[in-house]
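Hi everyone,

Forwarding the result from last night's run.
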Amino acid sequence: MQCPICKKDMIDVEYDKIELDYCVKCKGVWFDSDEFELLFEKMNLGDSFPLFSELTNRIDDKVSENKHKCPICKKAMGKIRIGDNSKTIIDICVNGDGLWFDGGEVVLLIKHASKDIQQESSAEQQAINFLGEVFRI
């Protein structure tokens, strides 16, 4: 799969049935829609962030950031503001194929989703450690 930003081939990163496409050049990450939800389930954060299907209802047409094409369907993706910092904007395929995170945005999303968790289970810690290694948290 090609990166929607720099058009370079991305590498597959797999952990416990979650397969991400990662661009080593721009550090962006593609989540297929089911992988995104699986990650949050495995981290026991399913209730902390909306399901993928709910995110498509949050597309903000007023975002002036350049639109990128979905690496799967090649259509222009929508933009969604996430987290406490409304300046963080992720891209979502309007056809439901997945989400694109520019470099560093996954970290912001995880911090936002896990801010209310008091204790981390071993599964959560494994997922956070994995993401920390991949995305240099």
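Confidence is low (pLDDT under 50) at residues 116-120.

Cheers,
N.
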